[in-house]
């Protein structure tokens, strides 16, 4: 039996993924409203196809735990998928992890030899230097009474289910053979390499992956700003030809989508994890110059676009913002570039803004409460605007590019 604590985007996908593979899984979340919604058969966020998997497994292989005590006592492995947001200095905040650990440890008997798996994203050295000492302060001896490992996730929002069921690799950071044996059994139905590495290495691989992607995005944006400064450069043509290099092909991750200019990276992972690794490097007296520059460029690209808009569109014109989620095929609006673009437009006197996103309108409005109008369709947004800002690369916009005629277009994603 497995318990997954935290039923957000990663946790619920993980719980249902193991359930689909035939394992018995408890799911627990401190948010009672969320668990009630899941118990009723509904997904509390948008993730294509996950509602069908929930319907298939709910109350069968996947059970909603009524309490964390029930879940922990009946499980051999507890997988933590709680949030690790950035604190005011950019470091990963472990408050939620420690709170969950308190609840777990109060329900554990030493003879049970429970395994705690940290799937939450945490910077390198966190398990060894912070989590294990925290557990041992409660009277447990790790590696004897209780076992701790990390198991980073590599899930793309909008494709999380396929990424979990058909992973390209599984990484487990652990220092003991007992955990290796149990985790090998759990992942035995996944026909991919399982890499057992040290605790620090497991954490580092996650950051290696995310900061590489954020670096590609900011590199491309910096090149776009250089090109704009020089002038006479067709950005779309330049990057299309750049991607014809044969070394890009044969990679199922489509890495070229990251090495492409736009309006910056957003969402929950890339900004938070890049900042966290910069801070972690400083903790070890190393100045991460490239990653610090990546964050700086990610901030500078939005004002850069605003200056381009100001040169072509007066503040009294009607502007449509197309796309509010941080990426297509997702309703996630956390740290979405569209938010800063809109705020900067408002600060520069643009008051006639109409926004449209295929699925994120209501959540964006409820979360940020900005003085905007919202269109119910792409046609409504276009019919009520003179200028268009494409902030998210939804396929709907590409498929209807003929409708953008006679508009002043700012294609922040270079999709038209």
Question: Topology of this structure?
Answer:
Elements: E1 2-5, H1 9-20, E2 25-28, H2 32-39, H3 50-57, E3 62-64, H4 68-73, E4 77-80, H5 95-105, E5 114-118, H6 126-136, E6 146-150, H7 160-165, E7 170-173, H8 177-186, E8 194-197, H9 199-230, H10 235-242, H11 269-283, H12 289-312, E9 319-322, H13 337-347, E10 353-356, H14 361-368, E11 373-374, H15 378-383, E12 387-390, H16 395-399, E13 408-411
Parallel strand pairs: 1-2, 1-4, 2-3, 4-5, 5-6, 7-8, 9-10, 9-12, 10-11, 12-13
Labels describing this entry:
416 residues; alpha/beta; Rossmann fold; 2 domains; six-stranded parallel β-sheet; five-stranded parallel β-sheet; 13 strands
Task: Put the structure in a nutshell.
The protein has 16 helices and 13 strands. It has helices at residues 9-20, 32-39, 50-57, 68-73, 95-105, 126-136, 160-165, 177-186, 199-230, 235-242, 269-283, 289-312, 337-347, 361-368, 378-383, 395-399; strands at 2-5, 25-28, 62-64, 77-80, 114-118, 146-150, 170-173, 194-197, 319-322, 353-356, 373-374, 387-390, 408-411.
What does this structure look like?
By secondary structure, the protein is of the alpha/beta class. The chain has 2 domains: 2-197, 3-Layer(aba) Sandwich (Rossmann fold); 207-411, Rossmann fold (3-Layer(aba) Sandwich), CATH 3.40.50.720. Helices cover 44% and strands 12% of the residues. The chain is built from 16 helices and 13 strands. It has helices at 9-20, 32-39, 50-57, 68-73, 95-105, 126-136, 160-165, 177-186, 199-230, 235-242, 269-283, 289-312, 337-347, 361-368, 378-383, 395-399, and strands spanning 2-5, 25-28, 62-64, 77-80, 114-118, 146-150, 170-173, 194-197, 319-322, 353-356, 373-374, 387-390, 408-411. Strands 3-2-1-4-5-6 form a 6-stranded parallel β-sheet. Helix 9 (199-230) packs across helix 11. The radius of gyration is 23 Å and the shape is globular. The model has no long low-confidence stretch (mean pLDDT 94).
